[in-house]
Amino acid sequence: MHRHPLDEYRDPTTLFRRWEQNPILTPEDWPYPANAVFNPGAALVNGETLLLVRVEDMRGYSHLTVARSRDGKGNWRISRQPALRPDPQYREERWGIEDPRIVWLEDREEYAVTYVSFSPGGPVVSLATTRDFMDFKRWGALLPPEDKDASLFPRRIKDRYALIHRPIIRGEAHIWIAFSYDLQYWGDHQVIIPVRPGSWDCRRVGLGPPPIETPHGWLVMYHGVRETAAGNLYRVGLALLDLEDPRKVIRRSEEWVFGPRAPYEHGGDVPGVTFPTGVVIDQETREMRVYYGAADSVVGLAVANLDEVLEYLSSCPSG
Ligand code: BMA
């Protein structure tokens, strides 16, 4: 097993620092009644940070609402109306839409939002594209249920779009990848990040925010789940995928780098959950801002330095 020499050991849970004013968004901030606001997608739009926040109403159904901030940390302006809500035309959305991930698709010059549609048929990965987060084109369900935690890569890789997703098959929940020429039809499926028996990520794994392109590879954050006597614990790990063949895992952290500690991560509808879904990188300062759902109730922000994260990952074992 890979071991760090003790004198070089860096506690990986110091890489991501909780923002002092966490939680940054709560149901009390909302301009209309909401039970929970969590698991937001994130994007830079006109120089501002835009969060597409999952809002759960008092029926237990979710929709997506925009919140904007100049610095991505404070002074959030929350829209009075949802941006994307379940559409009766799309039967797979009957019980709501959840957990968006956003990428700017370079070649199409628009944002792609992958989200979970929920209905009696089970959760499915759906796609919508938009330029302004007001008008959306829906592409419908991309893959059959049960499937969640999906994001596109921001660019084609060797002519094909690539999608990371997390189907549940025979009760097993591993991270998969698929490829497509047109965003609609997907193939070449395979597992890239499996659960690790015995480890903190033994029960389920799922993609966090969209993959981040770096010179060393695609940086991927993922959540890992372990069942405990007190319920599930959702923590966060890192992996690095090959730039031109993201089926290849170059590095994977043995340890988690972030997990429930703060009171708002342990007290809420689902205690013990840190669930990152959005990331924004400031290329100048190398600041990496990660937006996460805490206890399925509020939104938290964790800040890291991208180069430190990559340096840590380079010391991790190969996939
Ligand atoms: C997952 C999803 C997320 C949720 C998480 C923790 O399966 O349903 O929406 O945040 O569980 O409860």
Keywords:
319 residues, Tachylectin-2, Chain A, five-stranded antiparallel β-sheet, 2 helices
Task: Describe the structure in your own words.
With 319 residues, the chain is mainly beta. It has one domain: Tachylectin-2, Chain A (5 Propeller). It contains two helices and 22 strands. Strands 10, 11, 12, 13 and 14 form a five-stranded antiparallel β-sheet that branches. The two termini are 12 Å apart. Bound molecules: beta-D-mannopyranose.
Q: What is the fold-level CATH name, i.e. the topology?
A: Tachylectin-2, Chain A
Please tell me the overall pLDDT: 96
The poorly predicted ranges are: none
* Broad CATH class: Mainly Beta
Order of helices and strands: EEEEEEEEEEEEEEEEEEEHEEEH
Q: How many angstroms separate the termini?
A: 12 Å
Computed Rg: 18 Å
- Number of helices, counting only DSSP H or I runs of 4 residues or more: 2
Fraction in helix: under 10%
Shape field: globular
Task: Give the helices and strands, then pairings.
Blueprint: E1 17-18, E2 36-45, E3 48-56, E4 62-69, E5 77-78, E6 97-105, E7 110-117, E8 124-130, E9 136-141, E10 147-152, E11 161-169, E12 172-173, E13 175-180, E14 187-193, E15 204-207, E16 212-214, E17 217-228, E18 231-241, E19 249-252, H1 263-266, E20 274-282, E21 287-294, E22 298-305, H2 306-314
Antiparallel strand pairs: 1-22, 2-3, 3-4, 4-5, 6-7, 7-8, 8-9, 10-11, 11-12, 11-13, 13-14, 15-17, 16-17, 17-18, 18-19, 20-21, 21-22
The protein binds beta-D-mannopyranose.
